[in-house]
Amino acid sequence: MGGKYYSDVQIDLKSHKLLMESESERLPLLGNSTEKYYEKPSCLSNCSSSSLFVVYLFGFCVFLISGAAIFSILESPAEERFVERLRMARQNFLDTHPSVSDDALESLITEIVLASNRGVSATRNASGTPNWSFGQSLFFSSTVITTIGYGHVTPLSRSGKIFCVLYATIGIPLTLVLLSALVERLLVPTVWFLQFLNSRLGHLYQPLNIRLFHLFIIVCFFLIFFLLVPAAIFATCEPEWDYLDSFYYCFISLTTIGLGDYIPGDSLDQPNRPIYKIATAAYLFIGITFMMLTLAVFYDIPQLNLGMLFSTSNDVNSEKVRLAGSSTGSQYGAGGLYNSTIEENTHRHVVRVRSRRDDSPSPEESAPKELRLP
C-alpha cells in the first residue's frame, strides 16, 4: 500500500474533534490542545512578566492621572456655578433679614453642614422620619457588610461606633462567604448553559468564540435585569431622580463604590419607607451576587484575564490555561469547584483503530488498538 490508512474507527465524542496523524498513528483531541486556541501572542512571548507588569503599572498611573484631569475639567465649572448660586442666596438672605448678622448666619450654616455630614438633616427631621428606624438601620447594616458604605448616615454615639467596627469585622467575612456560596450554586446552571452551547455550536465555532458568546449573554442578563430594569423602577419611585440618576445609582451601588450622593427612600414624602429600604437592601445583595457571577465567567477566559500575563509561575498559568482550554469550557470557579459537575457530564470514550500496511498484516498489526481519550 502507498501509505497508512485507518479503518474500523468507532468513536462517540459529541463536541470533540479528532486529528488523525498518519505518521504517528495518534488521535489527539483538539479540544484539549491549548496551544491551538490559547497560544500567547508572539509579541508577548519574548517579554518577561516583570516587564509586562512595569508597563501595565505605568499605564495604570497614566489612566489614573488622566481620569483626575478629565474629572477636574468636567466638574470645576459646575462647582463654580453652585458656589456662585450659594453666595447669592446667602447675600439675599442677609439683605432680607438685616437683623441677622453674618457671623450668626455663618455659625448656623456650619452647624447644619456638620449635622448633614453625620446624616442628620434639619428638613428630614422636621418631617418626623427618624434615621435609625428598623428599616433604615437594616439598610445601613447591609451597606456596611457589603462594603458599599454610602456615608449618608453614620453612628453618632461612641458605643455605636465601636459596635460598627465589631459588626463590620465579623459581617464582611461572613458576607463574602455567603456571596461565594451563592455564586458557586449559580455557576451550576451557568456551566450547564455553556455545555448546551457547546453541544449546539461546537461543530461550527471554536471553543473561545462560544465562551465569548456565553459571556455576552451573561453580561446582557446582568445589564437588563440588574441595571436597566431597576433603574426604571427607581426612576418611578424617586420623584427627584430621572432615569440617568437611577442608572447611575444602580451602577455605583452594585460595584460597591457607594458615593452616597443618591440614596433611595430619603425623599420627604416617601411612602412605605421601611419596606422600601428593606427591598432596596435585598436588591443590593442579589445584584452584587450576580455581578460576582459575571466577573467569575469573565475571569475564567484566559484571553481576557490580563492578570495571567503578570504571573511569575508558569506552572500555574499552564494549568489555568489547560483547564480553561477544554472544549467543554466548564471550569468556572476557584480551585475547580465544578470538576465534579463536569465529570458527571463528561464520558470517557474508547477509540479502536486498526491500521493495515499491506494486504497480509501481521497478527500484531491486525490486533485492534485501544486509545482512551479523556
From TrEMBL:
<feature type="region of interest" description="Disordered">
    <location>
        <begin position="351"/>
        <end position="374"/>
    </location>
</feature>
<dbReference type="Pfam" id="PF07885">
    <property type="entry name" value="Ion_trans_2"/>
</dbReference>
<keyword id="KW-0472">Membrane</keyword>
<dbReference type="InterPro" id="IPR003280">
    <property type="entry name" value="2pore_dom_K_chnl"/>
</dbReference>
<protein>
    <recommendedName>
        <fullName>Potassium channel domain-containing protein</fullName>
    </recommendedName>
</protein>
<feature type="transmembrane region" description="Helical">
    <location>
        <begin position="212"/>
        <end position="234"/>
    </location>
</feature>
<feature type="transmembrane region" description="Helical">
    <location>
        <begin position="53"/>
        <end position="74"/>
    </location>
</feature>
<feature type="compositionally biased region" description="Basic and acidic residues">
    <location>
        <begin position="356"/>
        <end position="374"/>
    </location>
</feature>
<keyword id="KW-0812">Transmembrane</keyword>
<feature type="transmembrane region" description="Helical">
    <location>
        <begin position="134"/>
        <end position="153"/>
    </location>
</feature>
<feature type="domain" description="Potassium channel">
    <location>
        <begin position="127"/>
        <end position="186"/>
    </location>
</feature>
<dbReference type="GO" id="GO:0005886">
    <property type="term" value="C:plasma membrane"/>
</dbReference>
<feature type="transmembrane region" description="Helical">
    <location>
        <begin position="246"/>
        <end position="263"/>
    </location>
</feature>
<dbReference type="InterPro" id="IPR001779">
    <property type="entry name" value="2pore_dom_K_chnl_TWIK1"/>
</dbReference>
<feature type="domain" description="Potassium channel">
    <location>
        <begin position="223"/>
        <end position="300"/>
    </location>
</feature>
<keyword id="KW-0407">Ion channel</keyword>
<dbReference type="GO" id="GO:0022841">
    <property type="term" value="F:potassium ion leak channel activity"/>
</dbReference>
<feature type="transmembrane region" description="Helical">
    <location>
        <begin position="275"/>
        <end position="299"/>
    </location>
</feature>
<keyword id="KW-0406">Ion transport</keyword>
<dbReference type="InterPro" id="IPR013099">
    <property type="entry name" value="K_chnl_dom"/>
</dbReference>
<dbReference type="GO" id="GO:0030322">
    <property type="term" value="P:stabilization of membrane potential"/>
</dbReference>
<keyword id="KW-1133">Transmembrane helix</keyword>
<dbReference type="GO" id="GO:0015271">
    <property type="term" value="F:outward rectifier potassium channel activity"/>
</dbReference>
<keyword id="KW-0813">Transport</keyword>
<comment type="similarity">
    <text>Belongs to the two pore domain potassium channel (TC 1.A.1.8) family.</text>
</comment>
<feature type="transmembrane region" description="Helical">
    <location>
        <begin position="165"/>
        <end position="192"/>
    </location>
</feature>
